[in-house]
Amino acid sequence: MKAVRLESIGSMTMRNVENPVARPGELLVRVLAAGICGSDRHMYKGEYPTARPVTLGHEFCGIVEDVGDDVTGFAGGELVTVDPNIACGRCYACTRGRPNLCEGLIAIGVTRDGGFADYVAVPCAQAFTLPADLNPVHGAFCEPLACCLHAIDKAGIHPGDSVAILGGGVIGLLMVQLARLAGASEVILLTRQLTRRQTALHLGATHAFDPTASDAVAAVRDVTHGGADVVIECAGVPETMQTGLRMARRGGTFVLFGVTPAGVEVPVLPFDLLVNEIDIRPAYLNPFTHSRAAAMVASGALELDLLVTRTIGLEEVAGVVGSAPLPGEIKVIVRP
Q1: How far is CA 151 from CA 156, 177, 228, in A?
Q2: Measured in Å, how far apart are the chain's first and last C-alpha atoms?
């Protein structure tokens, strides 16, 4: 089969490799659709820890082709989405209900072979069944959506709240929709690209600002009459963390979600955080949210087609992951 392998920092290649097999407790999944994530680009550049060599791709959907021994609940032929994060279930974090912080976390498409391939073997406990007639491209959104749901849980949005979202990629545009579903009365997206701002308004944002065209902090504080109740940082760059903290109202909540490259330091003003009681809440991965994401995707509650800007084959994956996103790009979907 074909698989796109991260072989070293800055080096990805499509290889012909042996098909994986479903070992006891595992499923063999034929990949129908996989999403390229910003984290894949961080892994490519050595900015996020990963195994090497490894087949990347942690956002994927496919058909169960084979069922290993000791598997129950699957007979073959099911359309499934896969939670890539495999917790040990025994460490301090796991026994306290925080599997995303597992000391021995294994991640499909990060530390074991993932979905940028024709087939992938996965533990059956990580697979969630989707309706047979669901567009598999929609199924590939379950993993990023699950992570967004964890961030929304951490945000604690109340009906009538104002929410500012920094970053207009696929995550920011999913957050726009989730914030509205959570009851936010004002949803403000900040992103440089005009097409993404237009998409955000179509998806339910009440305002969309270009942070380079004006004083973004003042603009948010003006339309929210003093600052946003919740700020969600989805860009993973130092500037948005700094400006986002200043956009939150006194007593507001700042959710740190975007992946900043490991080792990057961001200066902040502790005094301002103290006297304004800004509540900083990091949100990492998808603890107990993948099944909710699968159900939400299956329900059709979200606009997903509008987020897909390009579909490619496996032979193009290395070039896309190794390059910066194209202007206007939101989500690139791989169809093996």
Answers
A1: 9, 13, 16
A2: 10
